Amino acid sequence: MTRVFSGIQPTGHLTLGNYLGAMRRWAEVDQHRADSLFCVVDLHALTVDHDPARVRRLSRQTATLLLASGLDPEVCTVFLQSHVDEHARLSYLLECVATDGEMRRMIQYKEKAAKERARGRSVRLSLLTYPVLMAADILAYGTEEVPVGEDQAQHVELARDVAVRFNQRYGHTFVVPRTTLPQVAARVMNLQDPRRKMGKSDDSGAGVVYLLDEPDVVRKKVLRAVTDSGREVVYDRAERPGIANLLDILAACTGGNPESLAAVYDSYGSLKKDTAEAVVEVLRPVQARHRELCADPVYVEEVLRDGAEKARASARPTVDAAYRAIGLLPPVTEPSLSAVR
Length: 341
Ligand code: TRP
Description:
Blueprint: E1 3-8, H1 16-33, E2 35-40, H2 52-68, E3 77-80, H3 86-95, H4 100-104, H5 107-118, H6 125-139, E4 145-147, H7 153-170, E5 178-180, H8 215-223, H9 241-254, H10 258-264, H11 268-294, H12 297-326, H13 337-340
Parallel strand pairs: 1-2, 2-3, 4-5
Helix pairs in contact: 2-11, 3-6, 3-12, 6-7, 8-11, 9-10, 9-11
């Protein structure tokens, strides 16, 4: 069965964009067609200025929401990155294969580093090496497919390069992974700035629908979405990004098609109203399941413990093989014959 791995950072509250763009597909499609692992990549949350208590809270919440969105621990593996040492173990080896030039070329590094500097903060070394840790996440599990958004494609490409290079130098050790972009790209944009992705780390919540927003908050945010000048409802991502975003969201929520939905509406107001209700309906079962899971924290902890155990068992042989291949002696577990003699 195909091995699938994806990760999500606990750096903010999960959004409608995370759900429609990735999580829903993991739950509805990927976990059933593949042997898949979904990881809350908490180590990655430490690459920029962070608050320990917040990372703890968001790690638990992100894991709970993955389960609430339909990931079934009987079918796939859900776990926290920091619970499986193999990620950090392998990351160091891959640092010995990747180059500093490769790291500095990463678009996300350049953007995030510039942001940190603009805020007068220093840039953590881990921000630079983060793509290597991500490569380790992927390669430790023999991953074939990595379902991520466009913005992560460069990092998966790096994981491929590093895998190929390691295999050439030290002998075949890693499966070479590839990105799978969702066919129907439900790319949800910020409601207040529809040229920007609806990101969980955004500073302002006004344009961002969070998975745990109350129905009335969802309605308010959607009804206040910025629209474009003009009146008729047409689907035009370049010229009418605000309306296109609403049509995309409505289509993703109702299973329709944004172009044909555009023909149904003759005013922005009615489009907004229907979109708001569609979002509320899509979030309803996720929120209900989330409430149930929060009432049973022991269950969630058990799922994460079992998930980490399964993940560890799967990663261990590959990471051990990489240690041997690169030239590290295996630890001696029993007195060797030479010592006895
Ligand atoms: N870097 C990814 C993001 O910011 C998260 C991530 C970390 C990831 N490790 C991964 C995604 C491995 C896929 C596979 O969204």
